Amino acid sequence: MLTITLNRPDVLNALNREVHAAIFDALERAKSDESVRAVVLTGAGRGFCVGQDLQEFAAGAGDVAQNLRENYHRNVLAIRALEKPVIAAVNGAAAGAGMSLALACDVRIASRSASFVPAFIKIGLIPDSGGTWLVRRLLGAGRAFEWLTTGRRLGADEARDWGLVSEVVEDDELPERMHEVAALYAAMPTRAVWQTKRLLDTAESTMFPDQLELEATTQAEMTRTPDFAEGVDAFLGKREAAFTGAAAVWPHPIRLSVADDLTRWRLTVAFRWLLALPHLLVLGLWQYLLVPVGLVNWVIALVKGRPAAGLTAWASRFVRLQTHVYAYVYLVADRYPPFRGWAGTYPVDLAIDPPGRQARWKTLLRIVLVIPAWVLTTVFQYVLIVVAFLGAIFALVMGRYPRGFRDLSAYALRYSAQTWGYLLLLTDRYPTLASGAEPPAQSRPGATSQSAPSAAPSDSGTSTTPTDE
Predict the structure, then answer these.
(1) Which of 417, 211, 400, 435 is nearest to 325 (CA)?
(2) Set 25, 73, 261, 468: catalytic member
(3) Listed range (68-82, 178-192, 334-348, 374-388) with the worst mean pLDDT
(4) 73 catalytic residue (yes or no)
(5) In 63, 116, 238, 347, which residue has its Cα 20 to 30 A from 389's Cα atom?
(6) Please, what are the domains in the chain?
(7) Is the entire prediction scored with pTM above 0.85?
(8) What is the pLDDT of residues 436-457, one digit of tens each?
(9) Spatial distance between the Cα atoms of 461 and 465, rounded to a whole number of angstroms
């Protein structure tokens, strides 16, 4: 696990730009370090965090909205997006944005002397850093309004009664207890914990049928993880499971998922191509830009043995947007797609693993090697047109799209995305005709332990302590 300690005890760990930057860096480290399977956020001294350091505003508040976007928003979003559990060990006052920071975590443990104070109203401000969203989600609209608009101090026991924290321990017991809870989560199947976290967040705004579909597709992914195989084996063998948190095993680093039901609005079915014209124009312009960008990235990959991260991220957005648009055009999804090509913004989506090192000979000959896959992709395009035409007739009559047509079209879109990804150096894995594959047999993970030294406090106002659990 990784412990992030807010380390400005002389000002009750008030937040300034340096602290924000250090928190974000630590979360990024936790994100990229596979050995970190749980994160603890706590404060040094007698306070957790009292929010913004007002001394930073001595010369004026400046652009408050931009400060929130660049610092507070970045960190609370990073906590919610971290694919590992985050435990807040609230060791004292959590006030203002410090309270929001604690509430953004997945689990909260409080010491007996801890308190929660939505202090914004006391100085004529509104809760920020996600406070309104987080408190309403935890307490409901009525109690959230009463608490946030009065700003009264909530002690640890009352916070537990309200459901803001899961447990309260004596002050001197908090360090040991936070490590116990972190160790508990670190021993769990990390991917299942993360997907539960993600689904609970999406449930706030998702219709019930859509949530059911998300659960179904996610469950299918979870059955591909080594932890699922280990869990079943341990259950049948009547032993404790030794989970590793390893990701699902897939036949290709570019994967397509469909979380859309089969209901189709007849009016948009009839005018689907016309409605998609703005997107098709954007894709056409983007393809012209791909030529110089792709050439630059090709040269970089030849020289360095791997493509440039920024250029591949940009190319990934093109491939994803193209998939979103064609999913709409060919009736694989019914919702109008956004224009940005970001992951998680459309029911038919692409997961694209970050590219690693690529063999230079494959890079040099990529334009030749891709030709067979490109021919097959072209064939699939004609198949998509025929299937969409027949499916549109069915949808206009029934108001629904045939599942077999939807799945066949999704198969073709996936192969097309893998072909584009191969051409644009997003991966050196050749497109596959396999729709899926069982994960290879995994050897039973062994338990290893290696102690790691604690990091010394830094001038940034935080310290991080890695601990193997």
Answers:
(1) 417
(2) 73
(3) 334-348
(4) yes
(5) 347
(6) 2-187+452-466 (3.90.226.10), 250-423 (no CATH)
(7) no
(8) 543 333 333 333 223 333 333 3
(9) 14
